[in-house]
Amino acid sequence: QVQLRESGGGLVQAGVSLRLSCAASGRTFSTYVMGWFRQAPGKEREFVAAISWNSESTYYADSVKGRFTISRDNAKNTVYLQMNSLKPEDTAVYYCAAVTNIDSRRLRLPSGYDYWGQGTQVTVSA
């Protein structure tokens, strides 16, 4: 079992940056694949980014590639999402998620993850 807690959300203007953090507790954090998802009002939860247990592999949604960067610090049990050049369409609740093993075909699916945080709101004004 692992518990996840996101932080760092807020209300910002378009074009600025935010860094989200997800702190994990419980079982060994370094064994988990970590993902970030987001959900806007009236929309389904969508994949944003994921990172392998050793940071060797990262994955991004096309909509955020080149603007967002996922990273992790296993010594601090924390995964980060650096979000640059924010756009109003990035407005959503952002969730981090964890899973011990996942097939690459399910990496971008919410159903592929076992543990979820409570989410943090990011609102980007035009």
Keywords:
mainly beta; 4-stranded antiparallel beta sheet
Element layout with pairings:
Elements: E1 2-7, E2 10-13, E3 18-26, E4 33-39, E5 46-51, E6 58-60, E7 68-73, E8 78-83, E9 92-99, E10 115-116, E11 120-125
Parallel strand pairs: 2-11
Antiparallel strand pairs: 1-3, 3-8, 4-5, 4-9, 5-6, 7-8, 9-10, 9-11
Radius of gyration: 13 Å
* Uncertain regions spanning at least 5 consecutive residues: none
Coarse morphology: globular
End-to-end CA span: 40 Å
The mean pLDDT is 96
How would you characterize the largest beta sheet?
7 strands, mixed
- What percentage of residues falls in helices of 4 or more residues? under 10%
Element string (H = helix, E = strand): EEEEEEEEEEE
Tally of individual helices: 0
Report the sheet-strand fraction. Answer: over 45%
The total of beta strands comes to 11
Structural class given helices, strands, pairing? mainly beta
Summed up:
The protein contains no helices and eleven strands. It has strands at residues 2-7, 10-13, 18-26, 33-39, 46-51, 58-60, 68-73, 78-83, 92-99, 115-116, 120-125. Strand 7 and strand 8 (78-83) form a beta hairpin.
Overview of the structural elements:
- Strand 4 and strand 5 (46-51) form a beta hairpin.
- Strands 2, 4, 5, 6, 9, 10 and 11 form a seven-stranded mixed beta sheet that branches. The protein has a four-stranded antiparallel beta sheet with strand order 1-3-8-7, with no helix packed on it.
- The protein is an all-beta fold and 126 residues long.
- The chain has strands at 2-7, 10-13, 18-26, 33-39, 46-51, 58-60, 68-73, 78-83, 92-99, 115-116, 120-125.
- The protein starts with a strand and ends with a strand.
- It is 0% helix and 50% strand.
- It has no helices and eleven strands.
